[in-house]
Amino acid sequence: MAHVLVIGASKGIGLATVKRALACGHRVRALARSAGQIRLRHEALEKVPGDALKADDIAAALDGIDVVIQALGVRPGHNMIFGPITLFSRATQILVPAMEAAAVKRLIAVTGFGAGDSKASINCLQRIPFRLVLGQAYDDKTLQEQMIKESNLDWTIVRPVVLTPGPRSGRTRVLVEPESWRNGLISRNDVADFLVKQIEDDSLLHQAPVIAY
């Protein structure tokens, strides 16, 4: 079992990943500015208040860690449309050299369908609304992906499609080849399950699959 650092652990995919990793027997260090508000207790859980944009917080959080899961998110609203959004690239600019300095090699990072080269797979009808609502965030996720790909880390980039509530379904499809990439739906709990499976599975090293139903 691994000692896992989850960055962005207080809500959404991050919180679901914390819960799933604990259920699978891993030790988890949950980093978030509001980590103290995580309503979860477990002997293998360490809640660490910290900021993904502060180098000292990240360096301290990496101590003794085997695997990092980066699951950052921004709140929907005005800023997503009018931006600028720089959270993903700025946090990654701090995380990558910190991991390299700490000799923590394994990084599993969540971006999304529409980031990087998956942008070309958005169909024509969806392209304009996607750009209007999510363009700022996904431009920054594209920078995030580029930084990760240029690193010396053992990385896997995970690109979920539209997120939904709901339990794990076991129906996740892993779309590796660009010709198979498409939009769709997937629950946060299925994304979390997929992320946790990557902790002990290196079959997708240096790949950026889209995951969907």
From TrEMBL:
<dbReference type="Pfam" id="PF13460">
    <property type="entry name" value="NAD_binding_10"/>
</dbReference>
<dbReference type="InterPro" id="IPR016040">
    <property type="entry name" value="NAD(P)-bd_dom"/>
</dbReference>
<feature type="domain" description="NAD(P)-binding">
    <location>
        <begin position="8"/>
        <end position="201"/>
    </location>
</feature>
<dbReference type="InterPro" id="IPR036291">
    <property type="entry name" value="NAD(P)-bd_dom_sf"/>
</dbReference>
<protein>
    <submittedName>
        <fullName>NAD(P)-dependent oxidoreductase</fullName>
    </submittedName>
</protein>
